[in-house]
UniProtKB/TrEMBL annotation:
It comes from Geospiza fortis (Medium ground-finch). It is a multi-pass membrane protein. The lineage of its organism: Eukaryota, Metazoa, Chordata, Craniata, Vertebrata. Its main location: other. GO terms for biological process: defense response; superoxide anion generation. Residues 306-421 form the FAD-binding FR-type domain. PROSITE patterns: FAD_FR (PS51384). The chain crosses the membrane at residues 18-37, 57-81, 102-123, 152-175, 187-206. GO terms for molecular function: NAD(P)H oxidase H2O2-forming activity; superoxide-generating NAD(P)H oxidase activity. Keywords: Cell junction, Cell membrane, Cytoplasm, Disulfide bond, Endoplasmic reticulum, Glycoprotein, Membrane, NADP, Nucleus, Oxidoreductase, Transmembrane, Transmembrane helix. One of its GO terms (cellular component) is NADPH oxidase complex. This is NADPH oxidase 4. PANTHER family: NADPH OXIDASE, NADPH OXIDASE 4. It is found in: Cell junction, Focal adhesion; Cell membrane; Cytoplasm; Endoplasmic reticulum membrane.
Amino acid sequence: MWDPHGRDSLRGKALPKFFWLSLNVWLFGKTFLLYNQGLQYYYLHQMLGLGLCISRASASVLNLNCCLVLLPMCRVLLAFLRGSQKVASKKTRRLLDKSKTFHVTCGVTICIFSVLHVAAHLVNALNFSENYNEEFVTLNAANYRGEDPRKLLFATVPGLTGVIMVLVLFLMCTASTYAIRVSNYDIFWYTHNLFFVFYMLLMLHVSGGVLKYQTNLEEHPPGCFNPNKTLRQNLTVPKAFEELFPDYTTEPFPEDPLVPEPFVQNRFMRVCSEEPKFQSHFPETWFWISGPLCLYCVERLYRYIRSNKPVTITSVISHPSNVLEVRMVKDDFEARPGQYVILHCPRVSALESHPFTLTMCPTDTKATFGVHLKVVGDWTERFRDLLLLHSNQDTEILPIFQQRRYPKLYVDGPFGSPFEESLNYEVSLCVAGGIGVTPFASVLNTLLDGWKCYKLRRLYFIWVCRDIESFRWFADLLCMLHNKLWQENRPDYINIQLYLSQTDGIQKIIGEKYQALNSRLLIGRPQWKLLFDDIAKCNRRKTIGVFCCGPNKISKILHKLSNSSNSYGTRFEYNKESFS
């Protein structure tokens, strides 16, 4: 169905990918024609044929994607752009939220064109061996005609580095699949860090200078007439003499269709003044990847220096349903609601670190910030055991002399996320699924400190959980915010809806302490279509920010509904949590 706002769901999702695919195909085709019709590659093309064109065209696409795949991983740069006034457009800032998608797209493109590049070079290795050019020896990669092509693959720097790069890329790609990331995140983490080995091999790979181009086109136009070599071939030799000396057999001058038209004038071939000279290309890949690679390395060094000092853990609180809250302080640490940090505990893992959304941000009056993490994997289990080893489940703020008993914890960040925009809309719809409530907790904490300084004037907060105990994670926060808004005569500022998707243990429903939440607790799942229609009806002709952090099923439904049209002139802009 056509959307008058130009936000058709299928078209909206397909356009960026189609644009990137078109750009890569255009670059591939442009490079293919250059090597297929370029005069400087005439003799090399005669040896290798289409293998030359395909290998170089795919290499140009690989250069582009290997250059850009690192930029989405520059978290500090993205956070700076998001928080700076230079990116004032909300649409432009939303594009920054697609950094992970762009990174994955570049990675998939690298895999596809690597297969094409490898296949073309396998053909090239065979052609170098079979089509050995005895006239222009410097043009050959093989040492003699009929040389085993496997020597070119395993006994040369370009060949050997290429083989190792294929193995590294295979490990990185297979370990990046959803099944591996979910079942064993450690495998994904360690294999993905092989990218540095990949880039070092790439810089060696392109320095071999296997493919050469002609440098003296003016003195030796391709297909030109060389009197010193062709005079003997054009002499008329008796047939009997040809049988005795087959090497002197006369053949007509080849009319190669690949001889460029500018060098054929009035049916007369230009005369060569010297032999052709060949030279290896300067490694263009260095130009492509040196900038992003240096930028990434500088950023990683900056992040290492910034996070080198461990934080001070002030409290560890164990919540129901295997959720752990860690509160910390750190000198000169500043963060905005919706941002996330990366935690690194050397006693848990020397190299591994994980991102967690801030549920509490430091303010002018308090320096404490915190995260909530759900214990679901090996890393979080070991981290929980270390933290709770010397504290009880109900421990609050500990005395200073007891803080040394906690393991050293390093915090890298903060980094930007889409949820920073939730306070920049007049109306926002925040949907959380289970532990996906964490990015909204920092927003709610910020509103508790003061809401009048922000653009936000109405917040719809939807939280879906499987068990009733999960609501206790932030029940106190929700009640305090509710009471504060009632005291300030703004009860309509926030609309809280809690959904319990499973009714097991319903008798343990929140008691008198959280009476304000009991009336907002519903059994079942939200009717998303009715919910969107009701919000659109109450906010006619407004732009509503939709923020989701939860299961993919809910995310897809909200994305589809946000892109669909309504009769009230209300526009929904969809945002989704995505750690880059």
